[in-house]
Every structure is written in C-alpha cells, then in structure tokens.
Design a protein that fits this description.
With about 90 residues, this protein is mostly helical. The chain is built from five helices and no strands. Helix 3 crosses helix 4. It is elongated.
C-alpha cells in the first residue's frame, strides 16, 4: 500500500460486532486495517459480478410498469432483502 496518499474511513457498527471482529482479527494475527483493506478490494473485484439493482433502478422499473406493488412482488426475495438492507444502511 502506498504511503504517499492515504485516506481514513470511519464506520459505525454494533459494539458487539466490533469487539468480535477485533478478537477474530487478533486471533488470526492480522490488523483490522489489513482485513478491511482486503475485504474492500475483494468487494471491488467482485462488484461487477454482483449486478445488483439500485433502489433507483427498482423504483424506476416499478414506475414504468405503473404498478409498484406488483413490480415488487415480482422481485426475488433475495433481491428485495438486499434492496431493503441497502436502503436501511443509507438511513442509519
């Protein structure tokens, strides 16, 4: 990792999750920063493969169909769950 340009990312999470993460990382001999960087890179590498619809895409599709309830019913439950989680995370 280049030392010339660094950025910090601060996140909020449940204290229990943070403590469990810290313990797991320490037990495996890593640092939290290293693990987070690796997870970030893995997400970037796989993001194009996910092909998840955005909230805006879902709403636009429902509006085009002129039937929001029916459009949401047609979505797979996994897609709806991912959509709900992303929307909730934006409002936390």
């Amino acid at each position: 990792m280049s030392k010339s340009k660094q950025a910090s990312i601060h996140i909020r999470c449940d204290a229990k999750l943070a403590n469990e993460f810290k313990q797991a990382v320490e037990n495996n001999g890593y640092t939290k920063s290293l693990v987070i960087r690796e997870l970030m890179q893995e997400y970037i590498d796989n993001s194009n493969k996910l092909n998840l619809p955005t909230e805006q895409d879902t709403v636009k599709q429902a509006i085009r169909k002129n039937d929001i309830d029916k459009s949401l019913e047609e979505m797979a439950s996994d897609d709806l769950l991912r959509l709900a989680i992303r929307m909730a995370q934006k409002h936390i």
